[in-house]
Amino acid sequence: MKRETFEKLKALGIPFDADFEQLAVQPLDRLKENKIVKKELDDEQKILYDIEYVTFLDQTLYNGKRNSANGYYYLYDGTFLGSYGQSNEIVVCAKKVTRENKTNKKLWFEFISPIRLAIENDEFLFFSGSIFAESAMGYEVIIKEEVFALASATGNFKRRIEIEKKKKYSYREALVLNRTYGAKSPNYNNFIKNQDRNKSNKMKLAIAAVINELIGGYDYSNGGIKWDGIDIKTAKWKDGLKFARPEHDIFGLKDNKQVGKELWRDLKNGKEVDTIWIRREWEYRYITTAAYQGENKKRKNGKYPYFENDKVNMYRYGTTFMNFHPEFEHNYPIRTKKNEE
Question: Could you give the CA distance from residue 141 to residue 297 in angstroms, rounded to a whole number?
């Protein structure tokens, strides 16, 4: 019997056995409640499909797993939801929902589609703060793709050195090895000291970028492992940089060919001998993979001008992502090298 019908009949004075409500009414109550909860979960699950390029496992916590929250919880947009339990690991979810226990009316939280990430809070904040400090957001230029690309490139570099060195590295170690100096900047300190990053859309964006990297989201760096900001002309460009696409040359520098070669000596009984071989030769050390730019008309670019009669870069900011050029990466087989005594 429906609850509404039962209550109406009771109001009319119709008597019922003591067990009637438990046996005939409450089961329908629970069925109705479960349908409502299921619909809410289905609606909330749609949030997942609004997050681009990412496929999620269905890890929704249903009523049977109440009070199981354990870790530091975030939404995919970087919003911090709170810490629960004893774990220091990061958990990302689609939504935090307040539920009510129908019996005792107590409230409890449900985290929709939680995914536990293999990173603890201290390293997570170090990573996010570094990305925040490295981005153009310090110049009040907000480019989502650039921020996300910084996190992606850090992950690409980490995976590269793990293959090369045949050992695991943390994101903190990867940032240091990649000579990422953001963690030494005032902007990094501002990020770490801020007690309510939810009020800062820029800080939330940096956190969202790190989450995107950690869940294997879209790589906005397009395979990049290194990057330069407004200092590109005095950094990797001067070492030899090839712009793979015209739109990557955001400051109008054009390709900078820097011919180089690396030599090695033969060893005999552990000592160098006079025979010198060419190990590799190159025209460009780096090649671009992506670039993002924006302007702040209220702040002059401190590296301006980039060339004579530069009339376009006064208020321009951006980041160029790159990898090593294939020529620079190619080592000649030792048996086919030319002797260069």
Answer: 10
- Between 174 and 39, name the one with better pLDDT: 174
Q: Please state, rounded to an integer, the average pLDDT across all residues of the chain.
A: 83
- Do 289 and 322 touch, CB atoms closer than 8 A? yes
In whole angstroms, give the CA distance from residue 336 to residue 331: 11
Contact 288, 200 (CB under 8 A): no
Displacement of CA 74 from its chain's centroid (Å): 13
Residue 41 near residue 58 (C-beta atoms within 8 A)? no
Summarize pLDDT for 309-320 with one digit per residue, the tens.
999 999 999 999
Question: Residue 183, CB half-sphere, CA atoms under 13 Å: how many?
Answer: 16
C-alpha 252 chain-centroid distance: 29
The pTM of this model reads 0.76
User: Could you give the CA distance from residue 194 to residue 40 in angstroms, rounded to a whole number?
Assistant: 34
Q: Cα dist. 90→43, 315, 337 in Å?
A: 25, 38, 51
The tokens for 167 are: 């050992």
CB within 8 Å of 134: residues ≥ 6 apart? 150, 180, 182, 227, 229, 319
* Cα angle, residue 299 at apex, residues 296 and 302 outer, rounded to 5°: 115
